[in-house]
Amino acid sequence: MKELRVAIFTGNYNHIQDGVSLTLNRLVGFLEEKGIPVIIFGPTVDEPAIDHEGEFVSVPSVPVPGRSEYRITVGFPEKAQRRLREFEPTLIHLATPDVLGFRAMRWAQANNIQLVASYHTHFTSYLKYYNLDMLELLGWKYIGWFYSQCKHIYVPSPSMADELNEEGIDEGIRIWARGVNTNQFNPDFRDMEWRRSVGFDDDDKVVTFVSRLVWEKNLQTFVDTVKRLQQDHSNIRAMIVGDGPAKKELEHMLPEAHFTGFITGDELSRAYASSDVFLFPSETETFGNVTLEAMSSGLPCVVADATGSRSLVESGVNGFLAAPRDTQGFAERVADIANDQELWDQMSKAARQKALAYSWENVNNKLLDNYREALNEPQPTLKF
Q1: What local confidence, expressed as pLDDT, does residue 89 receive?
Q2: How far is Cα 383 from Cα 205, in angstroms, rounded to an integer?
Q3: Phi, psi of 38, rounded to the nearest 5 degrees
Q4: pLDDT digit string (tens) for 130-146?
Q5: Is 148 within the bounds of a domain?
Q6: Measured distance between the N- and C-terminal CA atoms of the chain, rounded to whole angstroms
Q7: pLDDT of 258
Q8: What is the structure's pLDDT at 282?
Q9: Which strands sit side by side in the sheet containing 277-280, from one edge to the other?
Q10: What is the C-alpha separation between 214 and 242, in angstroms, rounded?
Q11: Domains: count for the chain
């Protein structure tokens, strides 16, 4: 049996903190704990957001026009290729279908190295937020071709696998879910004194959003839902956790909301657990890390009936699914929970119970089994 030596290529590892970068860093830490050699290639910046795990090799990149916090890789230079050759990988994991991913794919094929890939970002669903809907068909064609080169495709949720199947991407799909630290995200962090200190009354129903503050998370639906709720329910208050380019505009649109900014650790745990309903209308998730964190914190969740979210929230059990962008539907579901303490209690317990099944150790052990399976299988036929 071949020794497992993993090289990961990604468009995001340490320069910005989000679900993708945190998931990959956690994976690298896990592999190193298991004694498995691993190396990562990707873009970085002078002041990265994460103290990354493992050996990280920087490659050239440029800022995304108009969204400079994101980076686009522009090549795979000889210096990086030399380090890859020295490392002698036996498995290459492509985490982003970008220029770097394409170059790494061709390197692996030229050197007879097995390829696997993970599908983290639902790129085609972002196009409508930039008025680029006309590129969706072309985008799916490229994505289909890119992933067809790989023995396995690791997707975070069954609903994402279903959507890829509908687009004709149906070979080699495996589920690589996400985990949650159920000790860190725990209902015991609920803190009424803290709620009062930030301006919430004990009778207020706090509706919370947690994520990077970017419009492609469907922030407009969150804003419109809160405003609709507040027309009929004087005790509805909003809390927004996170930072990003949309923050200033959001502060103007919801001046009475509590904005925490970017927080982590116990502060984040307290914000979740001290809320009453988690409202997350994003349609671009492949999994929904923040939804799982909210569930682990005992929050009933009202989320968009879209990929990722629908694999976590069972409507009527641990929260509700609402039609994407249906402000009235979101508002009605939030009100149902906020106005019925017995329903809240039932959903809170169900949310926590479901989250307890998601252990990072189990999730990454399953991926490791898939790595080993792929390593000892024939490579897929080269497609042009």
Answers
A1: 98
A2: 54
A3: -150, 145
A4: 555 555 667 778 888 99
A5: yes
A6: 30
A7: 98
A8: 92
A9: 258-261, 236-241, 205-210, 277-280, 301-304, 319-322
A10: 10
A11: 2
Asked if 105 and 167 sit in the same domain, the reply is yes
Strand-pairing partners, residue 208, are 239, 278
The pLDDT assigned to 129 comes to: 47
Q: Quote the pLDDT of residue 382.
A: 64
pTM check: above 0.90: no
Give Cα 283 distance to the centre of its chain: 12
Spans in the chain with pLDDT lower than 50 = 124, 126-127, 129
pLDDT at position 159 is: 83
Q: Are residues 250 and 169 in the same domain?
A: no
Environment class of 226 (CB within 10 Å of its CB; exposed 0-12, middle 13-18, buried 19+): buried
Do 141 and 90 lie in one domain? The reply is yes
> Taking the CB of residue 66, how many other CB atoms lie within 10 A of it?
8
What is the tens place of the pLDDT at every residue in 71-103? 889 999 999 999 999 999 999 999 999 999 999
pLDDT score for 317 = 98
Instruction: Provide the CATH number for the domain around residue 222.
Output: 3.40.50.2000
Tokens of 208: 């919370």
HSE of 63, CA atoms in CB hemisphere, 13 A: 8
The pLDDT score that the predictor gives to residue 135 is 56
Give Dmax (Cα) for the chain.
65
Same domain, 191 and 174: no
**294, amino acid identity:** A
Are 11 and 117 spatial neighbours (Cβ–Cβ below 8 Å)? Answer: no
**Cα of 5 vs its chain's centroid, Å:** 26
> Crossing angle, helix 19-33 and helix 289-296, to 10 degrees?
80
Q: Which strands form 55-58's sheet, in the order they lie side by side?
A: 55-58, 38-42, 6-9, 91-94, 114-118, 152-155, 173-175
